[in-house]
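Researcher: We're teaching a course module on how sequence relates to structure. For the next exercise, students receive a sequence and then see the predicted structure as tokens, so they can try to spot secondary structure elements on their own. Here is the exercise chain.
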Amino acid sequence: FQFFFKVIYMRNYSLLLILVILSIFRAYPSSNSKKLIYEGNEAYNNANYIDAINKYTEALNLDPTSEIAQFNIATALVVLGTETNDTAKVNLAEQKFKSLVRSNSKSISRKSNFDLGNIAYNKQDYKNCIEYYKKVLRTDPSDDLARKYLRMAQLKLQSQQNQEQKKDNKEEEP
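Model: And here is the predicted structure for the students to work with:
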């Protein structure tokens, strides 16, 4: 019986050792992921948006659940797409932000809604823009910038509707 218990003990000990080693290796990519996000942030702050996207993508490859890496990729895509007039990059960023609004992190969700509001504003899609800024304010009523941008979007929508109404009136005239 002693031999039997030693074998069981050794197996359990080996299993425990394997679990500890796996947890260490699992933690290691996470720290590498954070390092890559930091390096991406450095590149972003130096206006090297392509390098930033590459670093964030590497981080995401190490930790596919990293919402920070996903958010940062989207943010860099918006800036790069805006600077180069590349609507495909902005549209890709928009899709990434839309997936992040359902985040468990209120901060990432709020920031994603804010950035979606900015994208909608730039596309002159004021109805959606207003909805996104309202979502930001529901999450954080003290966000004065979102409140300011909401008011600007409301004024733009009103102006847009007035212009459309004038256009419709001109078309109805004989």
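Model: If you want an answer key for the exercise: The longest helix spans residues 2-45. Residues 1-28 have pLDDT under 50 and may be disordered.
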